[in-house]
Amino acid sequence: MEELLRTTDITLIPFAQTLLAEQGIDSFELDVNMSVLEGGIGIFPRRLMVRADMIDDARRVLRENGVRFED
């Protein structure tokens, strides 16, 4: 698994997961339970992971849909 996206925006990961799923790309969200430690204020980023062999396709899908992320 490789990191595709890291964000504190709680709406971005579900959006990205939907875009990826429509293209048949599986993804997995990490750090979901960090909100328990931070008190729900959103200071710790969550990560979206995809299989290493799908990372280029996943980046393309997000770019084509205007999702900004770091390469």
Automatic annotation (TrEMBL):
InterPro entries named in the record: DUF2007 (IPR018551), N-reg_PII-like_a/b (IPR011322)
The protein's name: DUF2007 domain-containing protein
Gene3D superfamilies in the cross-refs: UreE, C-terminal domain
Organism field: Thalassococcus lentus
Pfam families in the record: DUF2007
Domain named DUF2007: residues: 1-65
